[in-house]
Amino acid sequence: MRQLIRGRTLSFHADPVEVENAFTYHEDGAVLVEDGKIVATGDYATLRADGLPEIDHRPNLILPGFIDTHIHFPQVQVVASWGAQLLDWLNTYTFPEEARFSQQGHAPAMAEKFLDLLVHHGTTTAVAFCSVHPQSAEALFSAAEARNMAMIAGKVMMDRNAPEAVLDTPQQGYDDSKALIEKWHGRGRQRYAITPRFAITSTPQQMEMAGQLAREHPDCHIQTHLSENLDEIAFTLSLYPKARDYLDIYETYGLLGDKILLGHSIHLEEREIARMAETGSHPVFCPTSNLFLGSGLFDEGGLRARGIRAGIATDIGGGTSYSMLQTMNEGYKILQLRGQKLHPFAAFHWATRGNALVLGMEDRIGTLAAGTDADLVVLNSRATPAMTLRMERATTLAEELFILQIMGDDRAIAQTYVAGKPML
Ligand code: GUN
Ligand code: ZN
Predict the structure, then answer these.
(1) Which end of the chain is less congested by CB atoms within 10 angstroms, N or C?
(2) CA–CA distance from 33 to each of 140, 269, 381 (Å)?
(3) How far apart are CA 166 and CA 95, in angstroms?
(4) SUPFAM superfamilies in the record, alphabetically (predicted)?
């Protein structure tokens, strides 16, 4: 069935940091949707037709749904855990919580809550770490498939430096990941990410198995963590004494390339930056998490200047908000501390097409281009009294977007469409 979704449409076709006219905006626009796909985006007057069903979201904005490139599904009940930096936070709060995902029924229940939270915050695709238990990934994929929501996910591989209840073995980690890939990768909108949690929790034998999976499944994504925290880096290098630096560990096992997403990537050596650029590997900026865990200030401008394309993400539950708007708000502040600027056009590009580019999926998601999947977010710039008051003085689209970026959260999400279906 064809349907016209009317509103002020905004979609990026280039990176506003790189080119002048990077987006298309229709003041009275519409997205024509059929069978979960965008047929056309343009002026309402051009797209309207007699008998064509319409939903009118005016004066709200319609953008491509947000993409979150780093989030931990089993940490929905870890968010806001007090007083620790990374390694203590993992040991005190996170590993015990993830252990609960072995319990019958827990992962399926949490998967529904997790996806509800994503769509309530306008996020239509996420790249998610599951727990070590294969049933956590199974639950997330099943729930995402039922909503026809594009998920990229993987069970974490971890075989040391954590409680027994969240450990696998090199062989079990390989076998479980392999079975999940065979069942889920490329099924509908689901995709698998090979997920060695980070070098601290994987033995060299397990890293070797992760590399083998990556060789056997070159079209799977790979996700892990890199150089988030100084104590983490020191511990990591003590576990891999032959490594030239942290990134070298992942390189040794054949994991670098444009499929890998390296969460955090804050405290990098010059050699690591050069290798990231040469291999096309992607760092992922997690602003609310980096502030909450006191991890450090991501160098967006420095990495961009080297030709590296970074993702931006919430990193729930080290992160403190599911909202990509709040993520861009805290991202703006981190870049301020770095003497860099995150313009609202750059921010909204990043959370949509930019993250899609990082995933190599811009032909499917992240824009309002014809032929792509109809994942949309509808944004209300007057969602709160404070926003309404501030909006009285906004005269440009950039100002309005910046108000959304700084003041917006789930209250600003008027609707989220996943494959053409309203989710709220
Ligand atoms: N490094 C390894 N595991 C994690 C995690 O769950 N969260 C964060 N923020 N960093 C990690
Ligand atoms: Zn993480």
Answers:
(1) N
(2) 27, 47, 24
(3) 7
(4) Composite domain of metallo-dependent hydrolases, Metallo-dependent hydrolases
Q: What is the dihedral of CA 63, 69, 73, 76, to 10 degrees?
A: -70
Residue nearest to atom 9 of ligand 1 (CA): 318
Ligand 1 close to Cβ of residue 122 (< 6 A): no
* Residue 301 CB coordination number (10 Å): 14
Residue to mutate, 198, 226, 233, ligand 1, most ligand atoms under 8 Å from C-beta: 198
pTM exceeding the 0.85 threshold for the entire prediction? yes
The whole-angstrom distance between residue 95's C-alpha and the CA centroid of its chain comes to 21
Tokens standing for residue 77: 């009940």
Q: Is the CB of 289 under 6 A from ligand 1?
A: yes
Tokens of 214: 């990556």
String of DSSP letters for 186-212: TSTT-EEEEEE--GGGS-HHHHHHHHH
The CB of 323 under 6 Å from ligand 1? The reply is no
Mean pLDDT (the chain, rounded): 98
Classified as helix, coil or strand, 332 is helix
Chain mean position to CA 161: 26
* pLDDT tens digits along 128-167: 999 999 999 999 999 999 999 999 999 999 999 999 999 9
Q: How far is 245 from 233, CA to CA, in rounded Å?
A: 9
Order of strands, sheet of 37-43, starting from the edge strand that comes earlier in the sequence = 37-43, 23-34, 2-12, 54-64, 376-379, 413-418, 421-422
